[in-house]
Write a structure and sequence with these properties.
Helix Hairpins, minor pseudopilin epsh fold, 8 helices, mainly alpha, binds manganese (III) ion, single chain, 2 domains, globular
Length: 202
Amino acid sequence: MAFELPDLPYPYDALEPHIDAETMRIHHDLHHKAYVDNANAALAGTDWENQPLTQVLTDIDIMPEEKRVAVRNNAGGHANHSLFWTIMSPDGGGAPTGEIAAAIDDAFGSFDDFRAAVNDGGVKRFGSGWTWLVWDGTGLSVYSTPNQDSPVMQGHVPLLGIDVWEHAYYLKYQNKRPAYLEAWWNVVDWNAVNERFEARGG
Ligand code: MN3
C-alpha cells in the first residue's frame, strides 16, 4: 500500500501566532505531499513498496543503490513530518507532563536545560535538518540530523522533533531560526510526546 499524506489534526491557523497559517498550508500540502509522492515513486516496483515506513527506513542500506538517496530523503521526510504535526497542538506549550517529565529531569537536569539542548541542536544544524528528543534504546538523548534523516534509521524512537528547514519558519521568522525555536515550545503537545514515550518499547 502506498504511503498517504495524513490530514493535519487541526486547521492551518490553529498554531497562530507561533506558526502562521500560510507556512502550515505550504508545509503540509506541498512539502509533505512531495515527500509522500516521491517516496512512493522511489519504492514502486521494489521489495519495499508495501512495507511499513519503519521497515523502509531501517532497510535503506540494503536497497538498490540507485534508490537509496531518494528513499532516505523522501521516506525520511514523510516520517518526520507525520510525527511533527502530531506533537504540536493549539492547546500545547508549558512544562512536560506525565512520565516524560521525570525522565527529562533525570536525563538533562531540568526542563530548561533540556529545552536549551534541543534549541542548541537546532541552531547549530547548518543548512536543513531536525533537532530531536529520542529514546535510544537505553535512555533519552538529544541530537540533530541533517536533511530528512530520521532517528528511526539508526534504530531510535523519535519522541519530539523540530523541523529547522527554512520552509518551516521563513515566512514569519526569516533568518531568525533561534526565535522560531523559542516560539515553537508554545505549541508542543506534551500529551502526545508522553504517549510516544510510554509506547517506546524496548
Ligand atoms: Mn519540513
